[in-house]
Task: inverse folding
């Protein structure tokens, strides 16, 4: 570099200043000169930049403990922010799955309601001996060998959709089982049924008035706390057989999990695929879900803001202390020629370094935090979300720089004259 | 008549309502002159120096330095003016503790806008510190630190040098080394103003200004001062 600068300078001596249209002027020389002068300026600013970095890095390493305190303050806020962000990005998915344990959120029924096979979820009143009872046929656990998702054969049924069902005894394992029944707990109590008892059912077809009778063995009792408690459950084909409505169903329950979209959209999709049906979303459940999601989200945002504000205050006080401690040094810098901008740039660069370091470390601590939370709440690990890294670092930088503005302003107001005072 | 390097007209400085540190001081210091300012503690010497250098501003009056009126300038403008025109030396050799001697000199270059390591090294060599450039202030003696300050004050080639008791914290030997450098600077044509308590140092200069209570009470050449004191000594 230095040699080219010297070349440039010696070159200038050989060039006579001339106007552009002057015949004696050699424009190429002028061009070369301009290029080399630019090079010279670049060299100069490079060396100034090096000096600046040296001042900043040495002053930082001189005050390691203060820098560490400020960095820890940032780290805490950043960890909270990134942790909660990670959890909430995984939470929607996880919480959605949790909600699915409370049953279906979409009910598909025919558009005209002509078939009256009972279905779970609707109460038909209390049960007394000799009174009508809803007989519900359903799949408890059914595999669909033709349907493979994610390399697994698709399975569904009550046991998937309503894991909260509490069955004493055993489930009906075989879908073609036409001997077994599961009695709701109210039915079992009213009829004084015990596991292994037999019940006699009679069904009158409303169309042809034919009465069919069936003897079923109670293999299990069911306790859900809901209307299912006063119903009797059998395998779907069995119910279809008893009611003489082979291949027919009254309704289909769907447990739809979609993080990004409302259940209504899935309902609409189903209606499009299955003509003459109506897909009703279970409004209460859906609303409770969105409400809880929203509130959790707001709470997390609030915690994050509070944590970041606390970091900001931490950074502000340490920076303020640093400025006060370094009053003499700042005054000295001014007295030997530093304008306010140079002083501010030193302090702000220190803040940026602290913010960056705290942000990166905070991101990783936040991930550990998120894993811990996910493990204890959802009993499942949470995946690392990479976009949260730049977000966390950006937020940390913003917080530190913002928190430094006041101390930096204080620094620029320090009078250079204090250096000469013998305090 | 020679040009004035520093020209003060009716400069008054109030720190607060009750503290008048300077009381209508008028003073012209010629280019290339060597002036000592003496006077009891609290008489306003440091205040005077601060105002000459633009470290502080006057409450009233005008200040011209190197033919430039700096009276109404703001802090940033004063800073820019100072780094090109005035070198400052303090009693407590203020250096940045975490930087080496060389870096302390280069910092002044950096603030001024041109970093030149070689020039900084030569500057330290000129004050006899060529062998200690990589030492930090804590590793240097008081006299050495003061010489780093001088190298730093000179690095941007100001023609005026203001020193507030530069030898105040130094022993005789180191004080003499510093004064040797200052004499050399005067001979090179710098304008030098030194605040000092030490009459031996004041006598070496070409002009002595005595301050009392924020006013100039005496303005003399050392030859006269010397003869006056000589006469006093011979009195029975
Ligand atoms: N920052 C200040 N605020 C208030 N009073 C000050 C300040 N600096 C100096 N003084 C007062 O101004 C007067 C002159 O001080 P100074 O210029 O430091 O005197 P000297 O350098 O001659 O000892 C003293 O009375 C001192 O107490
Ligand atoms: Mg003083």
Result:
């Amino acid at each position: 570099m230095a040699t080219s600068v010297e070349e440039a300078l010696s070159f200038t001596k050989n060039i006579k200043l001339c106007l552009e249209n002057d015949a004696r002027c050699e424009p190429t020389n002028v061009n070369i000169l301009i290029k080399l002068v630019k090079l010279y300026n670049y060299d100069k600013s490079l060396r100034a930049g090096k000096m600046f970095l040296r001042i900043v890095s040495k002053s930082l390493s001189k005050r390691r403990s203060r820098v560490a305190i400020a960095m820890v303050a940032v780290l805490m806020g950043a960890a909270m922010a990134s942790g909660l962000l990670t959890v909430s990005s995984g939470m929607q998915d996880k919480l959605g799955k949790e909600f699915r344990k409370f049953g279906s959120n979409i009910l598909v029924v025919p558009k005209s309601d002509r078939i009256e096979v009972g279905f779970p979820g609707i109460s038909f009143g209390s049960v007394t001996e000799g009174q009508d009872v809803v007989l519900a046929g359903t799949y408890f656990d059914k595999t669909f060998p033709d349907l493979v998702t994610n390399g697994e054969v698709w399975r569904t049924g009550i046991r998937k959709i309503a894991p909260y069902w509490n069955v004493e005894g055993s489930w009906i394992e075989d879908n073609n089982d036409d001997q077994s029944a599961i009695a709701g707990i109210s039915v079992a109590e009213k009829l004084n049924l015990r596991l292994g008892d037999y019940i006699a059912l009679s069904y009158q077809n409303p169309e042809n008035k034919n009465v069919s009778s069936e003897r079923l063995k109670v293999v299990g009792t069911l306790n859900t706390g809901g209307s299912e408690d006063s119903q009797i459950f059998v395998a779907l084909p069995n119910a279809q057989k008893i009611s003489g409505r082979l291949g027919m169903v009254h309704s289909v329950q769907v447990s739809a999990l979609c993080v990004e979209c409302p259940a209504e959209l899935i309902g609409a999709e189903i209606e499009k695929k299955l003509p003459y049906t109506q897909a009703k979303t279970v409004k209460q459940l859906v609303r409770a879900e969105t409400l809880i999601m929203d509130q959790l989200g707001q709470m997390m945002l609030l915690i994050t803001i509070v944590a970041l504000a606390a970091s900001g205050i931490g950074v502000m006080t340490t920076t303020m202390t640093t400025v006060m401690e370094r009053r003499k040094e700042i005054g000295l810098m001014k007295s030997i020629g530093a304008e306010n901008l140079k002083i501010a740039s030193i302090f702000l660069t220190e803040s940026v370094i602290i913010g960056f370091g705290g942000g990166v470390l905070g991101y990783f601590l936040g991930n550990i935090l998120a894993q811990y939370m996910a493990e204890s709440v959802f009993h499942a690990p949470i995946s690392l979300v990479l976009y949260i890294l730049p977000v966390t670092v950006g937020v940390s930088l913003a917080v530190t720089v913002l928190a430094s503005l006041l101390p930096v302003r204080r620094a620029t107001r320090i009078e250079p004259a204090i250096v000469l005072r013998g305090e | 008549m020679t040009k004035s390097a520093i020209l003060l007209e009716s400069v008054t400085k109030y720190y607060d309502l009750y503290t008048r540190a300077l009381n209508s001081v008028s003073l012209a210091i010629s280019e290339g002159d060597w002036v000592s300012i003496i006077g009891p503690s609290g008489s306003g010497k440091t205040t005077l120096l601060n105002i000459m250098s633009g470290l502080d501003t006057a409450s009233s009056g005008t200040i011209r330095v190197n033919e430039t009126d700096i009276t109404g300038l703001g802090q940033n403008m004063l800073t820019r003016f100072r780094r090109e025109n005035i070198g400052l030396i303090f009693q407590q050799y203020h250096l940045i503790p975490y930087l080496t001697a060389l870096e302390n000199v280069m910092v002044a270059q950096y603030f001024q806008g041109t970093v030149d390591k070689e020039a900084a090294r030569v500057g330290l060599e000129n004050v006899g510190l060529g062998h200690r450039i990589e030492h930090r202030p804590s590793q240097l003696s008081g006299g050495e630190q003061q010489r780093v300050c001088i190298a730093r004050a000179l690095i941007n080639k100001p023609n005026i040098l203001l020193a507030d008791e530069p030898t105040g914290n130094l022993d005789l030997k180191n004080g003499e080394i510093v004064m040797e450098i200052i004499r050399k600077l005067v001979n090179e044509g710098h304008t030098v103003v030194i605040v000092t308590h030490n009459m031996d140092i004041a006598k070496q200069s070409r002009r002595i200004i005595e301050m009392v209570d924020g006013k100039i009470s005496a303005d003399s050449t050392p030859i006269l001062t010397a003869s006056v004191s000589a006469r006093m000594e011979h009195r029975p």
